[in-house]
Amino acid sequence: MATFIVEGKQFLYNGEPIRILSGAIHYFRIVPEYWRDRLLKLKACGFNTVETYVAWNVHEPQEGQFNFQGIADVERFIRLAVELGLHVIIRPSPYICAEWEFGGLPAWLLRDPSMRLRSCYKPYLDKIDAYYDELMPRLKPLLCTNGGPIIAMQIENEYGSYGNDKQYLAYLKQAMIKRGMDVLLFTSDGYDDSNLQGGLLPGVLATVNFGSRPEEAFSKLEEYQPDWPKMCMEYWNGWFDHWGDEHHVREHDDVVDVMDRMLQSGASINFYMFHGGTNFGFYNGANYLGKYEPTVTSYDYHAALNESGDITDKYEAIREVISKYVELPEVELPPTVPKKNYGKVRLTEQARLFDSLDRLSEPVRRPCPETMEHMGQNYGFILYTTRISGPRAKNKITIQEVRDRALLYLDGVYQGCVERNTHDQTLEIKENDIVADIPPEGATLSILVENMGRINYGFGMKDPKGITEGVRFERMFLHDWTIHTLPLDDLSGLSFQDLQPDEAYTPTFYKAVFHIEEAGDTFLKLEGWTKGVAFINGFNLGRYWDIGPQKALYVPGPLLREGENELIVFELHGMQEPVVIFQDFAELG
Q1: Residue range 338-395, pLDDT digits in tens
Q2: Residues 240-267, buried b or exposed e (16+ Cβ, 10 A)?
Q3: Less Cβ around it within 10 Å: N or C end of the chain?
């Protein structure tokens, strides 16, 4: 058993002063086979603590169905940390932000159209209680007060940038305490007056988040908590990327200068991120501050360890600064994981989406389009199909409104794309670039909508996916829809045929079987492909998109097998050639 407490302006661990030197590593962004590697590198850099969020949507993917296996085995991750002599800071808030889908909240919360997030709305609190009843007993034996490594736990995450419901914060605090969480509790917020006033709780340690100007940040924190230790709970030493933007880079000279100034002031630090990892599957988040901006698959973050866990110049510079303040541990670094160049792989089989619907989904009839959440779906795609009677004069289709990107087809022929950021979410029905009438026999309208990631931060978080209201042909709402949910969580039922040339845009699954002699990390480059999702041996690697900045998907070696491997690519628009490249380097920007 151990104690970690605040006494005056310092932290005490078992009665001795301690400065927290922590780095963020999210277990759910790294394959479990690499957890030890990343934690060893953290310790070798001079850090004494690892910090991680706990993602609710990973652990309760369906209401009442819990998952703590594989990449979700947070207990194993924490036990690895204690084996290596690291303390653990855990942030199990219902909400985590983290550029993670819906900020870690489970999508099924939105089945309740009246849901009020991050507040004292009883149905929301009831869901949290059910989750905590499962989570907290798993964490309790791992608290330092019970001989484990967890020294501190967060109550909520950057709440002051969202709301000011102090009853809600107090409820979460008591929910933890009554379940035996008797370690130091804390909050973390931006360092302006608004954030601190909204996010602080009396008698609870407050920490601040920032990337620069540490003197200004800590000065503001001391206005609100003058007699407590100074801690930056998120030192943003890099940044994340949105699709279509440039890759963010922060030079290490700037990073270590700010870090050194913090350490000189006696502050404790948590690097966000020490190692970012990957938004595998459909778990990337999105931002909305007047414009919807989905986050890319890579969460490299330009961190001390890159996406594939390699040591960078930034790592070496950070380690050098830390060595000025503490004696570096004698830790033998694990060998660098080899990067493999498997070369070109040709995809030789295909299964068109529209020919495969019955193998992927059970159709459901509804009078109006319904959101994914109302259909019991969390992630992926959803297809809406209806008939437009004819004859009709030429007119526009209006989607009211699309979340987040829709491909429209008339009698199976691609008409165009409607995106969420388009203010006028309309599309002229076209045929060979000529506006067309609806023929006397009518026509079938199909709309394939992609959920590109729920908003993870700010006022737009209540973000249902699919078509939220309806579809109009000019002024008339269209009714009687057939809906196929397409989460793409099981592709085993697909029936593949030999590859056929596609003259028109049609969403298609492409398949290749390839052999390797030795498994290692590699990067899947889809040169000449447009937009879609890639799967290795049934594992969803995440999204690709030719607008960048990410040009290749990270493939951890443990996902590969010596001998035969299967690659499936779901391409929405089409490619120049059915060939991909497995290369030995990442491409960001």
Answers
A1: 999 999 999 999 999 999 999 999 999 999 999 999 999 999 999 999 999 999 888 8
A2: bbbbeeebbebebeebbebbbebbeeeb
A3: N
Given the residues 60, 101, 156, 234, the one annotated as active site: 234
Distance separating alpha carbons of residues 511 and 529, to the nearest angstrom: 14
Peptide bond into 549 cis (omega under 30): yes
Task: Using 50 as the pLDDT threshold, list the residues of the chain that sit under it.
Answer: 431-435
Residue 158 falls in the annotated catalytic set: yes
End position of a domain, from candidates 460, 486, 512: 486
Q: Which residues contact 259 (CB under 8 A, 6 or more apart)?
A: 235, 237, 269, 318, 321
Each residue of 47-98: pLDDT tens digit?
999 999 999 999 999 999 999 999 999 999 999 999 999 999 999 989 999 9
Which of these, 325, 304, 305, 207, lies nearest to 261 by C-alpha position? 325
Torsional class of 259: left (φ above 0), alpha (ψ -120 to 50), beta (otherwise)? alpha
Starting at the earlier edge strand, list the strands of the sheet with 16-18.
4-7, 10-13, 16-18
Cβ neighbourhood burial of 308 (10 Å; 0-12, 13-18, 19+): buried
Which long-range contacts does 322-329 make (Cβ < 8 Å, 24+ apart)? 322/21, 322/45, 322/46, 322/47, 322/263, 323/46, 324/260, 324/263, 325/19, 325/263, 326/19, 326/21, 326/46, 326/48, 328/44, 328/46, 329/43, 329/44, 329/46, 329/85
Q: Which of 158, 349, 373, 450 is catalytic?
A: 158
pLDDT (0 to 100) of residue 430: 52
What pLDDT score was predicted for residue 425? 63
SS3 content of the chain, % helix, strand, coil (to 5): 25, 35, 45
Do 205 and 72 share a domain, yes or no? yes
| Closest to 415 in 3D by CA, of 545, 573, 529 | 573
Amino acid in position 86: L
CATH of the domain at 561: 2.60.120.260
Phi, psi of 268 (to 5 degrees): -95, 155
Tell whether 503 and 557 lie within a shared domain.
yes
527 is catalytic: no
pLDDT of residue 396: 87
Do 223 and 139 fall into the same domain? yes
The per-residue pLDDT for 436 is 54
* Residue 474 confidence (pLDDT): 86
Name beta bridge partners: 509: 351, 570
Q: What is the pLDDT of residue 429?
A: 59
Q: Is the peptide bond before 391 cis (omega within 30 degrees of 0)?
A: yes
Task: Give 471's strand partners.
Answer: 399
Query: Torsion-angle region of residue 495: left (phi > 0), alpha (psi -120 to 50) or beta?
Result: beta
Structural domain range at position 573:
343-351+494-583
**pLDDT for position 395:** 84
**What are the residue ranges of helices labelled H in 46-88?**
56-59, 74-83
Maximum separation of any 2 CA atoms in the chain, in Å? 84
